[in-house]
Amino acid sequence: MLPVIRYLSHSSLQSLQLTTHDVIASIEHLFFAKIQQQAWSAPKAVITPPDGRYMMATLAAVDDPPFLAVKALVLNPENPKYKLASINALVTLLDSRSGLPLAIIDGNWVTAIRTAGLSAVAAKRLARPDASIAAFIGCGVQALSHLRALTEIFQLKKINVFGRGAASRDAFCRSANEMGLSVITTQTAQEAIQDADLIVTSVTLSPQLVPFLDARWLKPGAFVTMTDLAAPWLGESMPVLERIIIDDLEQEANMPEPLINPALVHGDLTGLVTGKTAGRQSENERTAFVFRGLALGDLAVAGLAYRRACEQSQGTLITS
Question: PANTHER family given for it (predicted)?
Answer without folding.
Answer: KETIMINE REDUCTASE MU-CRYSTALLIN
